[in-house]
Amino acid sequence: MTRRAALFVLALTALSLAAPLLAPYDAGLAFRDFLHAPPMRPHLQGFAAPVVHPIVLADRLEQRFEADQTRTIPLPWFGGTSDRPVFLLGADNFGRDVLSRLLYGARTSVGLALFATVGAVLIGAPAGAWAGLRGGWVDDAVMRVADFVLILPVIYVVLVLRAVLPLVLPASTVFLLVAWIFVAVGWPFVAKGVRAIVAAERDREYVLAARSLGAGPARILVHHLIPACSGHLVVQATLLLPGFILAEATLSFVGLGFPDPVASWGTMLAEAGNYNAVARFPWTLAPAVAIFAIVLATNLIASPDDRTS
Amino acid sequence: MGRYLLRRLGFALLLVLVVSSASLLLTRLAPGDITSEQALVLDPASLAKLRTELGLDRPLAVQYASWLAGVVRLDFGRSLLYSRPVSTLIGERALNTAMLASVALVLATVIGLPLGVYSGSRSRGVGRASVRVLSVLALSVPPLIGSLGLVFLAARTGWLPVGGMTSAAGIDQTWAQWLVDLARHLPIPALALALPLAATLERLQSQAIEKATREPFVAASRARGLGHAQALIRHAWPVSLRSVLGLYGIMIGSLFSGSFVVEVITSWPGLGRLMYDALKARDLYLVAGCAASGAFFLAAGTWLADVLLAFADPRVRSQEAR
Q: Number of CB pairs < 8 Å for A and B?
């Protein structure tokens, strides 16, 4: 399970980095004549590159599009260049390609979640290890704080912390800010487990052997105790990741996350979350499907009663 | 036992105080206040007068002290946004959230537990496999995604109304009509909240009952001539319930955070939406009140779950008596 979880995290990292390579268009590129254009179906023609039929606006008032069956355009990944856009997942209300935004959005949403997860592990693990190794008042203090953060109404805390800061900020500042807020509420999950493991392991023979050979607490921690926690760390990271992705989506959905032009899964859902629009243009819910897929993958990896592995 | 619960209660009260104070102070220290929008149209003199009327020109310490003095008497101040007492506003909205959450909890229990007993008491079969697949799928639908999906389904099919607690047309409805209207608005938000919880319950119940059926006393009851179903329900299930009950305390927390998103998406007039509106308007007393009630419900929920667990499991009682 640890290995599968690590692979999953790696795959997500790759996905979040690959947007510029995979996306057919820039995330902000708007095709004015293709507002809410429906997804196009790719056709295979023997061994040639897959093609789509270009669409034309049939009725601007009804936003009805018709496919031009007589013409074809090859997909952009197969060297197709055309003056007509290709929307495999349709277009949003500004005529931006949903697929491109989904990929660039992964960079923002998954990237943010990865950043926050790494942060939570980097802060939670040493804090928990320190508490477990030292014991006494350090242990008490760290664990009290962790317990306190754990029983806070997380969603309210995140909302308050985000809302009291200026709303209009550059995207990179928002990224760091939100990531740090997530780290602040996420580290106790890591710390508690690490503390329990370190407290249980510190009296084992191999630690005693290391200590009698003259190893200091730092060396014992880094060389012996942190490796003992690696399984827990990977599992916790796998569980925190989808939580943070959802938290970003929630924040951006209610307008407290990234500003609108930034492609993130939350801002995309915010545009889709209108009752009328959702019924008519279901392809704008693509980020919801992506989030579902990630949570599903996490559940399959982390399911404790899996007998096949 | 009693002392333990009392200590927990004291901790919960402290939590409520700290959370509400922190959110009040943070909101006060944040740039902008409730008059920020009027500031664009008002001249400086009347703006200053407005701020004096609202008590916003006082120094932070004075403002906080007067608020705290009220809180001790359970007076949470007046909302600047709605010009009504915070406690009245919260009372109304908390009722709506409580209704949504309890319906979701009941729904999750009614769906999750029987399916868990079913899938856990069977070693193979199509039924068990399909329950497991369904539960992993439902587990992967967090309230944000679930409510978007259900709203899409409802808007597309027109089966259920979307948005709000009742229809806007229902101003002069009779009591019965209002109830029917409410019952038609409730399923979408409640189901969005309940789905992942039902799946969690199903998984846990399934594992618990699987373990319980292997206990010797179940075999003994079978040997005495009890049927499979009777042995399962009368003997194995009560024992398995112990670990399931422990989950309810954790579920209160996820119900709470889940209900915020669901309320925003389906326009359910609950506590989460109130908090959101208050934050946006920088209505600091309302923010503090919402945060306080949020912390209170969370603490009360986990406390209640602990009490339940203490009654259900003698081991917890003896442990805490130490």
A: 118
Please tell me which residue of chain B has the smallest CA distance to A295: B140
Highest averaged pLDDT of the listed ranges A4-8, A86-90, A98-102? A98-102
Q: Which two tokens stand for residue A150?
A: 């754990």
CA distance B18 to chain A (A): 10
Q: Provide mean pLDDT across the span B142-149.
A: 90
**How far from B192 is each of A249, B55, B98, B105, B199, CA to CA, in Å?**
16, 41, 15, 11, 12
- What is the ipTM, given to two decimal places? 0.82
**Distance between CA atoms of residues A152 and B295, nearest Å:** 7
What are the angstrom distances between the C-alpha of A113 and each of A107, A179, B299? 10, 7, 28
- Measured at the CA of A24, the angle between CA B141 and CA A47, to 5 degrees, comes to 100
Task: Find chain B residues with C-beta within 8 A of A279's C-beta.
Answer: 152, 155-156
Q: A109, A145, A159: which to substitute to probe chain B, counting the most B Cβ within 10 Å?
A: A159
C-beta separation of B166 from B208 below 8 A: no
* Superfamily of domain B2-321 in the CATH hierarchy: MetI-like (1.10.3720.10)
CB of A305 within 8 Å of any CB in chain B? yes
> Residue B55 contacts by C-beta under 8 Å, 6 or more apart in sequence?
B63, B66
Residue A54, pLDDT above cutoff 50: yes
CA atoms within 13 A on the CB side of B44: 0
Q: What is the DSSP letter of A97?
A: B
Which chain A residues contact residue B298 at CB under 8 A?
A: 151-153
Over the stretch A217-249, which tens digit does the pLDDT of each residue have?
888 888 888 888 888 888 888 889 888 999 999
Q: Could you tell me which CATH number the domain at A98-307 has?
A: 1.10.3720.10
- What span, in angstroms and rounded, lies between the C-alpha atoms of A21 and A43? 23
Out of A154, A156, A300, closest to residue B275 by CB: A156
* Cβ of residue A251 closer than 8 Å to a chain B Cβ: no
Please give the average per-residue pLDDT across A172-178, as a whole number.
88
Q: Tokens in use for B139?
A: 């587990």
Tokens 């407005």, residue located: B50
Find tokens 């980097």 and name the residue. A122
Q: Are strands A73-74 and A55-59 parallel, antiparallel or unpaired?
A: unpaired
Element (DSSP H or E) covering residue A55: strand A55-59
Give me the residue spans of the domains in chain A: 40-86, 98-307
Q: Please, which pLDDT band fits residue B27 given cuts at 50, 70 and 90? A: confident
